[in-house]
Each structure stands twice: as structure tokens, then as C-alpha cells.
Amino acid sequence: MSRIIFCYMKRNSRLSAVLHVILHMAERAKPMTSEELAKHMHTNAVVVRRTMAGLRDAGFVRSEKGHGGGWIIARDLNTLTLRDIYNALGSPDFFALSNRADAPDCLVEQSVNHALDTAFQEAEALIIERLGTITLADLAADFHRRFDAIRKERKSHDL
């Protein structure tokens, strides 16, 4: 009798959330507080400060203290790739899939695990390589294209 195990793992959306707030920061072009960023990330300011600290350590953002202070982008968006941000976040796992380890001496399990490990490693390497080709400036340009298209569409409906 075979055993089927269902496991639910929460998706890790930190990379997406951080990219989201960085683009908001770029549009604002002045410091944003942890509280403001937390609203965009749908989390609390403590999580934002902890997350942004990794980006600060990598030199991607800086924090300014005092009245009017907050987080600000420290690098040109053309020089930052999605892989840079991914690495600054600690290179979280892409896949929630894993191998069985119920019978490590079983040759069938070893064959299956080897094939899956190879496939997972190759897939992750391709994703990370692709992230290195996309800059934050590319994301900002895509946002502006979408924004302009909506604005033009609204103007044409108003005529």
C-alpha cells in the first residue's frame, strides 16, 4: 500500500513584496517610513525594518533618521537586478517540493531523489540566471507603460 502525503507550505512572497515597495520608493523619490512601507507590504513595520536591514547591508537602500526620514534607495535602479534583491533576502528556496527520506537505503528512492534533486537544481539555476537579467529599472519602465496605457484609455473614454 503506497502512502500519499499532502503538505501545504505557505508561499514565500517576500521577494515580490520587496520589489513592490522598492518601486513605490522609486516613484516617491523621498524617504518612506517603515510604517508607510508596511502598508504597501500588508505587514507590520517591524517586518519591514528587518527586511530592509538586509537590503541596507547590501548597500541597496539606506535609512535616514529624524523628521522627514525613512528608507531611501541608495543605488540606481539600472544597476540593481532581481537576483541582487533575491540574494539580499537570503536566497529563499523557490520550491516547496522535497524528496522522501523514508527508506534511504532503498535504491528506488535513491534513483527518484537523484532525478528530482537534479531537476530542482537545474530549474532553480535557470530562474536565478533569469532574475539576473531583469533590472529594477525594467520593472519601473513596465509600470510606467501600464500606467500610461490606463491613462490614455481613460482619456479616450472621457472624450
TrEMBL record:
Keyword tags: DNA-binding
Name of the protein described by the UniProt record: DNA-binding IscR family transcriptional regulator
InterPro entries, A to Z: Tscrpt_reg_Rrf2 (IPR000944), WH-like_DNA-bd_sf (IPR036388), WH_DNA-bd_sf (IPR036390)
Iron-sulfur found in the keyword field: no
GO molecular function: DNA binding
Organism per entry: Phyllobacterium ifriqiyense
Key word DNA-binding present: yes
